[in-house]
Amino acid sequence: MFSEKEIQKIRSQFPILKKKIYSNPLVYVDNAATTQKPIEVIQASQNYYYTMNSNVHRGLHYLSHKATLHVENVRKKIQKFINAKHSSEIIFTKGTTESINLVASSMDAFIKKGDEIIISQIEHHSNIVPWQILCKKKGAILKIIPIYENGFLKLKDFEFLISKKTKIVSISHISNVLGIINPVKNIIDKSHEYGAIVLIDGAQVPSNLDLDVQDLNVDFYVFSAHKMYGPTGIGILYGKNQILNKLDPYQFGGEMIKNVSFNKTTYSDLPFKFEAGTPNIEGIIVWGYAIDFIKKIGVSNIQSYKKKLLMYAIQRLSSIDGIQLYGETKDLSKRSGIISFNLNQLHCFDVGSVLDRLGIAVRTGHLCAQPLMNFFKVSGMIRVSFSVYNTFKEIDYLFEGILKAKKILLN
Ligand SMILES: *Cc1c(COP(=O)(O)O)cnc(C)c1O
Description:
Elements: H1 4-12, E1 20-21, E2 24-25, E3 27-28, H2 39-51, H3 62-81, E4 90-93, H4 96-106, E5 116-120, H5 129-138, E6 141-145, H6 155-161, E7 166-172, H7 184-193, E8 197-201, H8 213-216, E9 220-224, E10 235-239, H9 241-244, E11 257-260, E12 265-267, H10 281-297, H11 299-317, E13 323-325, E14 338-343, H12 348-357, E15 360-361, E16 363-365, H13 370-375, E17 381-385, H14 392-409
Parallel strand pairs: 3-15, 5-6, 5-7, 7-8, 8-9
Antiparallel strand pairs: 1-2, 4-10, 9-10, 11-12, 13-14, 14-17, 16-17
Helix pairs in contact: 2-10, 3-10, 11-14, 12-14
Bound molecules: pyridoxal-5'-phosphate (PLP).
Residues 32, 95-97, 124, 126-127, 172, 176, 201, 203-204, 224 line the site of pyridoxal-5'-phosphate.
């Protein structure tokens, strides 16, 4: 738990938080969409162009060598951050979405007619559509793990769905709508009993849970930098060496080849086989500073602080007459700092617009999870998601804001 002074110190590292929105202080609670960036991250971006800009893995010259060194250091930093066995198991991508697409495309050769792929009811569209397309192309079958009313996966049904026909299981670690932490270790172990390969969508995880891909024994793990205080347009695919080695590349071009002639091309070794073209060099290098920022505060400190914010917010919001909070609200041990709700019969966009005028940034709409919206029989929700720089006072302000929205919109 942070003292008031510590929180103010953390806040002072995020310049954007000083901004006024329609002459109100900004209350930024859309962190599940993207987090704000601390000064060291912003400055690292400028510093890169001031001192290092050049292409990597190609030039022999000083700058290219320096940029390459920094890129490869960040790869090692991420390896350590998630406890991967080898740095060559870290593939840089545009982000979570591209990582899942990479796996879905590259797994193509291993999927045949009648095979099955399992996802769940709560997935983000990024973890639905690539599998749907793959199934359609190969005549495979997409199976869905259903959920209880509180948003928890029906694990009994999963045990019923999984079989020798299951080739891939792809599940989110933390739901971007309900904040529910799924029991992925159980799912991974069970899937392996049947020889299925498991991908975990960890987009909401890196500053919320300690990550250990070896302990999870997961085959693929994916996330983006921009939801963990880093820049947009960069993320990773973690994959076990022995699996990545068996897959064909996803894109073709420079950087990923060993030899090219017009008759035959041979591919580079990992990780470069999957990194065609000039990568997001700046993004990779700057991401390293975001990881340092998280490590300085400590993932478990961030996690327990966000849990306190969640508990307080659930307590305050649930006292509002006519509010519908989604997902488990009693036992919060399996939830991270995300709350989605609706207010009376009001449209989520109307509520969001009133909050916006008060300087409160929330997410509204289907939250990239239409099948989950269908489950709750709504077209959209209002989502509040916390970060390390949010405060209890902001939750009070949000509470007042929701009351105001009710008053304005219901009259
Ligand atoms: C944000 C998010 C994604 C997509 O991440 P991008 O950075 O937009 O590629 C996928 N899954 C979950 C659970 C997310 O929260």
